[in-house]
Amino acid sequence: MNPSAAHPHVPAEPAASLPADDHRRLGHELDLFASDPLLPVGMPIWLPNGAIVRSVLERYIVDAERDSGYAHVYSPPLGRKAMYEISGHWDHFAEAMFPPIDDGAEQVVLRPMNCPHHIVAYRCRPRSWRDLPLRIAELGAMFRNEPSGSLSGLSRVRAMVLNDAHHFLDPARIAEEVALVISMIEAAYADLGLSGHHYRLSLRGDGAKYVADPGLWDRAEAALAGALDDLGVGYEPVRGEAAFYGPKVDVQVPGRGGREESFSSVQLDFHLPERFSLSYAGAGGPGRPVMLHRSVLSSMERCLSFLLEQHAGNLPVWLAPVQVVVLPVNPSDGDQRRAVDEVSRAARAAGLRSEVDAADEPLGSRVRKARLRRVPYRVVVGDREAGSGKVAVSLRSGRALEPMPVARFVAGAAGVASRRSQDLWGSHSD
Ligand SMILES: [Zn+2]
Prior knowledge:
Elements (H helix, E strand, L loop, with lengths): L2 H4 L16 H7 L3 E2 L10 E2 L1 H20 L3 E2 L5 E3 H7 L1 H4 L8 E2 L4 E4 L4 H9 L10 E10 L15 E11 L4 H19 L5 E6 L10 H17 L4 E5 L8 E7 L5 E10 L1 H5 L4 E3 L2 E3 L2 E10 H11 L13 E5 L5 H16 L4 E3 L6 H10 L4 E5 L1 H6 L1 E6 L8 E2 H13 L12
Parallel strand pairs: 3-7, 9-10, 16-17, 16-18
Antiparallel strand pairs: 1-2, 4-6, 5-6, 7-8, 8-15, 9-11, 11-12, 12-15, 13-14, 18-19, 19-20
Helix pairs in contact: 2-10, 7-8
The structure holds zinc ion.
Zinc ion binds next to loops.
């Protein structure tokens, strides 16, 4: 029996035979994630380097959300089956869900989406108009029983963590809330070095499948279009692409090989507030909020696979798992060893992720290793540098900088990282 048929997550071909910009190959070269016959299909493990990138992304987006007035929750990755019967997932989404776990007393399911849990966070307290808009956010784990043949690296998985949030709002506030999300998306794409994206506005078509009254749809569609217009971002309106429960904005990004993918999304929902009987005490009587579902970074899994392919592995400095590698020319020379340790310590003290590579190998092979790992800064210390307190720095792009004092290098690299600059050094193009 062909072992790759028994374990479809074990690549039939070694990573080296995949295209150079395929995230599965890059994930292997950069030591970011791995599959294993003992892990379920579509559930790779994040290795230490991948975990660094992920934790930097997670901290980044959680901070951005906090700055934008989101409140974070932690909710269990399982829900009672009844929750998904109310939400409608059980009827319409069951084939993408894992079978329920029955413990004799109740049936629970691994959640395919986080929305119902955030609805619980909304409705577990009486709400008034003063609480709105309420923005509930979570890096929420979700599970999808995707067909095994469609699974691929980190881009299509069965367990994922979504950069998820739900806004509960008065329908009169739709335009402001959508504008807030779009400005977060634009800021994140600039920091991640993503470009070439465009917006797609999915509107309702003809037919009776669309819930809620036509007046609310008209207002909502006009509010979405107005928010995009106000921000000056172009968009393509597409009739008949809306979900039955509300219009949405998709951010289309260019993928590998010219394919276009939806990455971020903002979705209006009139339906779930109805299904879960959400309400708030308004100034003139009870009101029903509308919901906005949004994701800026998509799932952590898709985000990393996408960044790897967009940047061909050359992640922006602030995301690189190792930012600085310090190399003694002669690893057995005591002065050089002391000097490289000092450079690496200074880099770490400035918040950079720095390593010393003093393996007993020729300098050339250690340089090649650092290049394969796409380390942004290679710092070489020989006798001359060890004696002078200067360092010779080469950028990942191949450019060599003039020798400079350690402090100047450290301040420069730390500045690039903290500004989330897309350049490797100063304002030069690299
Ligand atoms: Zn949702």
